[in-house]
Prior knowledge:
Structural class: alpha+beta
Number of strands: 16
Helix content: 25-40%
CATH class of the largest domain: Alpha Beta
Largest sheet: 10 strands, mixed
CATH architecture of the largest domain: 2-Layer Sandwich
CATH superfamily of the largest domain: TruD, insertion domain
Radius of gyration: 22 Å
Order of helices and strands: EEEHEEHEEHEHHEEHEHHEEEEHE
Number of domains: 3
Amino acid sequence: MSDILSSLAYLSGKPVAKAKIKAKPEHFKVVENLGFDFTGSGEHLMVRIRKTGENTSFVANELAKACGVKSKDVSWAGLKDRHAVTEQWLSVHLPKGETPDFSEFLAAYPSVEILATDRHNKKLRPGDLQGNSFELTLSEVTDVHDVLQRLESIAKTGVPNYFGAQRFGNGGNNLDEARRWGRENVRTRNQNKRSLYLSAARSWIFNQIVSDRIEQSIFSTLVEGDIALATEERVIVDTSNIAELNEKVAQGIAEISAAMAGDNQLPTSEKALELEQPHLDAEPDLMALIRGNRMRHERRAISLVPEGLQWEAQGDNIVLRFALDAGCFATSIVRELVEEIEVERVYS
């Protein structure tokens, strides 16, 4: 299986250890945190599920049948991996206030549990998510000592905030389609595909910029013309503030950002613009798609420091626990630790 991210630079060099990821569903546990409370009343029944070895869309469709509604009446804040044990909320539009009998649904799908229900005045939408907590098990690790050393470093300096391979589709299909859509000026009313391909396009360019900063040894150092993220504001870096801002970066109270490309010009200048602009110019088809859909330029931190990172070695297994904000990828942490041993999966 080819790795679409194989060309991206590693912050601490390519891992020497190998390990299996998700050898069992319980080796990849995810608990969703919406970050807000429900109103306790309203047209939408909120259902918290725990699923094992099932994808979110499938469970949502089956839950819709159990509730006697259409699939479009069931929504979620974020898709969760199939090959995992995951907890998340689904919302079901049931305006009459009824709570269906889920017994037949649960009997038919023993891989799904209902943990809680509630009521809310709004349906869940993609993005209504603060973050996720993870418990990951790296199994059959070939060099436990090296992984433990890397974890010590990650706890202090983080990892590149790359978008994971799942952002680009199976075998990079989403990225390929994004380039085709930009090249052929495809127009569509399918908002799901449009969102997938635009996300793939912008994420790919962002990853290339971050990788380039690592290659140029300026991953942890601001350069003139950069944009620093500090206390929810953007600060343009120049000769008058670069030393102060680099100190804040070192202290973890400011972050270096990279472009999430849009149809407007990059707001960076000088050295930072010289680094970022070539990566936009290198992808004319992706940029045609981005500009054709009038995406506005955004910034994203280039470093990802997992919150509350803990680990425990158990023989040749290592268990990791940490939390990430929405939009960040646990696989970006794993990538800096081990080279993945492919696991053969049996699909039912």
